[in-house]
Design goal:
The structure is a homotrimer. By secondary structure, the first copy, chain A, is of the alpha/beta class. Chain A contains three helices and 39 strands. Among the domains of chain A are: about 90 residues, Udp-n-acetylmuramoylalanyl-d-glutamate--2,6- Diaminopimelate Ligase, Chain: A, domain 1, CATH 3.40.1390; about 150 residues, UDP N-Acetylglucosamine Acyltransferase, domain 1 (3 Solenoid). Chain A has an eleven-stranded mixed beta sheet, covered by helices on one side. Chain A has a ten-stranded parallel beta sheet with strand order 8-11-14-17-20-25-28-31-34-37, with no helix packed on it.
Chain lengths: ~350, ~350, ~350
């Protein structure tokens, strides 16, 4: 990045004091920043660094009274951390990618419909009847098999595979190695113990503003759809099975797994390594804590923990009891003994 | 797909009533199907839809007496859901792929032996001494490193990597991003706390009719083999370590992990997120329920649950006890108190 | 491989008896080896095979008195298994790869700095400002996005993705499908329940002699670094979140997950499917047993088990108590009853 303090203040519609022509070329924490860096005065514990930071430009709260040093500028904003996030999301990474570029080593089927502004890097495969929207970025070795639609401004990182009949909304970010639309894990038993595969002729539909983590896998529907709502955020190595439906703004942390046909509400939070059985539902605003296992539907918002999952307060009481269990066994032994003595005295 | 009712009935060797020239272009559930769709009368609860479905063609049980509507046909079969599966597996997906095609961007070593009917898409790498059977499909960016053998009719989805000395049987389906034959995780300790890598000079052997899920990893043997039996079905993000052997028709759900040198019997079912320690064995027909952890061999068929795993009925009793544990602690406190009173009265 | 017994003995600086011109073309276990194979007399239980093995060359302990058969040679070493490991690591696999080769289908940015001896296979992408060291091997379809540095002698297997600002040390081995430097999973909440992405402008730094497993994911730092120390060994499908720091010679088994900003000491061992919460630390020489969950920092070396994790001995006592819990409930019921009788007698 290369921006002047003046340009940064303009992007944030903020006022500043100091030299507006100073050039910003990087970002760092307030205590680690050096000359040429932008930083921000986030949590209170960092306030002590404001007078000593070597950053060239600091986003500070409006009420700040400290003055910037020489060769330094302060930009005044309501919430410095938020302003930093807004700024950086505006200065998108990889902005050096050429609009409309198509690397000659990519294979693009003649029936594919690619928007003029889409960027297609080396080694990509775009199969029959695919549609790629405006300003879409396909990084190296992305594979769109066929009948796939990618909404405007979506970015797909290297080595991602999209199976047939996958629809991705606008402004999504799909991380490297993710696989979307693969066959669900469904079979019927034959009498000899072998399996016959249930055909997966359904599709996968991903909403807008969805982020999907590296090496995450999402299976397509058997007959109908697997649906990921708008604003859903999914971490790395998550598994989402066939016919799952996930409500808007739900977040799922790394290595969690959701079995087939399960329905997840809106604003649900699923922590790392949580597992959900199939054909159940989670209500809106449920929080599943790490490593929990869910075997039954949860109909009430709130936090749940354990395998099988229990309401958080109950899980904590049980865990407390567990730690006393070895002593409890001794206590009961002791009681039994005392009781015997009493009984014998009779 | 584009088939007439006549052609569909012929594929199923079934009779039908209605117009045999009607064209079928898709499939859907009986309650969601529209004009041009095929559907099937599966579970009893769907029978109510038979008179109102908009599907053009319905697979119905032989004893069905309802008559098809205009512009509709019923095909009579013994088991509509099974018939649907059989039909769809016959009408293979991607059947539009050109037999014998080799995309010019793929790298094929001169020593590789590729059957004339194999399909090789863009960006594939086929290294020295590989053998690729008849009607094999390699989707974009598949990498076969060297000394690899792929049996007839096997399909390998995009971005799969096969390490040297991997053998895949016939009619397998390997999903996108899977890695087969990677180095096992084995080291010897040096005195300074660092590790020296144990060389993995073994191989990986996959049977016939095996399905391997997206982003699943299977390590090769250290000296000998990692073996996956015939008809084994493996879901997404599963880890199978070096020298594991898996019996025929075993099924392993997503995110399960099997440590080194463990032997799994036939028709075993391993649910999601189960973990097995190394150097143990599971008998035929064992079922490991979700999130279980196995630290010792299991020699008896049946269902097991928990970490460490217990027989299902024992695990259920313990879980019941756990829920009563906080109350039990109070009860024992209370007993102790009452006993003290009794003792003092003496 | 093709080496004479003479050459093998020379590589190990060892003496031998038998025919030094015998040709070795493979390796196998002592009980499975055949003509042309090298083997070693490892654990004591294999000593019985020394007189009957068909191996052409056997690494034996110095004190061995048995004589080799005809067409056989014994090489005398202090520790046969160690000698075997040393030998095989010297005879590197894929040694047939051509030094300095660059496949024409790879895309190499003009600003990239590739050492003359580096091997670059087909379908690779090397972006702007990347540096690739001497004798580096990039297997097919590896993607180095930009500003990436790869140290000498590092080998990267197929379909690996490195995000911008990733540094890999010397003599590392990165397995197929691994993703290094991806965006951390961090968001701030908007008032409407949606999320705003926290920009990840940090980097990822991997030390020397690190091995990273297939389809493992490592996120880059938000502002600063994710750091993997020297000699760290990471298995398949492991997740390491943003800003994690891992000390030298720590080993992490398959499917373990480490949440953001957690600090792991040196020589820590993390078993399979373990989960660590964020913002905590593990002391040097801690061992986390399989499937454990860590919610608090651990400051003392030793073994820990359970979710939440407890000292190993405590965890074992609790597990023992659990198995007695159903009986305990009955016992307490019984005690209560007997006590009531005693009380009534008063």
């Amino acid at each position: 990045m290369e921006y002047t303090v003046h340009e940064i203040a303009a992007m944030l519609r903020a006022s500043f004091v100091g030299n507006g022509d100073l050039m910003i070329m990087g970002v760092n924490q307030i205590d680690k920043a050096s000359h040429g860096d932008l930083t921000f005065m986030g949590q209170k514990k960092y306030y002590q660094y404001l007078e000593t930071t070597k950053a060239t430009c600091v986003l500070v709260p409006i009420e700040t009274t400290v003055k910037p040093g020489e060769d330094q500028a302060f930009v005044f904003v309501a919430d410095p951390y938020r302003a930093y996030i807004t700024l950086m999301n505006e200065i998108r990474e990889h902005s050096t990618l050429r609009v409309g570029y198509r690397h000659p080593s990519s294979h693009i089927d003649l029936s594919a419909n690619i928007a003029p502004t889409a960027y297609i890097s080396s080694g990509c495969y775009i199969g029959p009847n695919c549609t790629v929207g405006e300003y879409v970025k396909l990084h190296p070795n992305v594979v769109l098999m066929e009948n796939i639609s990618i909404g405007d401004n979506t970015e797909i990182m290297p080595n991602v595979t999209l199976y047939p009949r996958t629809t991705i909304g606008q402004s999504c970010l799909i991380h490297a190695g993710a696989v979307i639309g693969s066959d669900g894990f469904g079979y019927v038993n034959n009498v000899d113990g072998s399996y016959e595969k249930i055909p997966h002729v359904g599709r996968t539909t991903i909403g807008n503003n969805v982020e999907i983590g590296a090496n995450t896998t999402i299976d397509r529907g058997a007959l109908s759809e697997t649906i990921i709502g708008n604003g859903v955020k999914i971490d790395n190595l998550v598994h989402i099975a066939h016919n799952v439906e996930i409500g808007d703004n739900t977040a799922i942390a790394a290595q969690a797994g959701i079995s087939g046909s399960t329905l997840i509400g809106q604003r649900v939070r699923i922590a790392g390594q949580v597992g959900l059985a199939g054909h159940l539902s989670l209500a809106d605003d449920v929080t599943m804590l790490a490593q929990s296992g869910v075997g039954k539907s949860i109909t009430k918002a709130g936090a749940y923990l354990g395998s099988p999952a229990k309401e958080y307060s109950q899980a904590v009481r049980i865990e407390g009891g567990l730690r006393m269990l070895p002593q409890l066994l001794k206590d009961v032994q002791d009681l039994r003994h005392k009781l015997q003595i009493l009984e014998q005295k009779k």
